Amino acid sequence: MMNINFSENLHLLMKEYGVNQVKLAKDIKIPQSAISAWLSNKKEPSITSLWFLADYFNCTVDGLIGRSNF
Questions:
Q1: pTM score of the predicted model
Q2: What are 9-39's pLDDT values in tens digits?
């Protein structure tokens, strides 16, 4: 198992996919402020948001939260 937290995984995926907060927010229809809060560890995403992110980045929710590899 990996010990990387959600915000680090999200940052890595955004870099890999070449998307910034504004584009990701628009594409998954979530406020950019929510993404900013996730990246700075101020808030955690809802399960619905995790599903949207997993679909967008073609990975598992477990991968996003660090329970497994992407």
A1: 0.88
A2: 999 999 999 999 999 999 999 999 999 999 9
CA proximity to 36, closest of 10, 70, 12: 10
Taking alpha carbons only, the member of 49, 64, 55 closest to residue 10 is 64
Number of other CB atoms surrounding residue 68 within 10 Å: 13
Joined tokens for residue 10? 């999200």
Q: What is the largest CA-CA distance in the chain?
A: 32
Q: To the nearest whole number, what is the mean pLDDT of the chain? A: 92
What is the rounded distance in angstroms from the CA atom of residue 15 to the CA atom of residue 2? 19
Residue 46: both structure tokens together: 């809802």
CB atoms closer than 10 angstroms to residue 50: 17
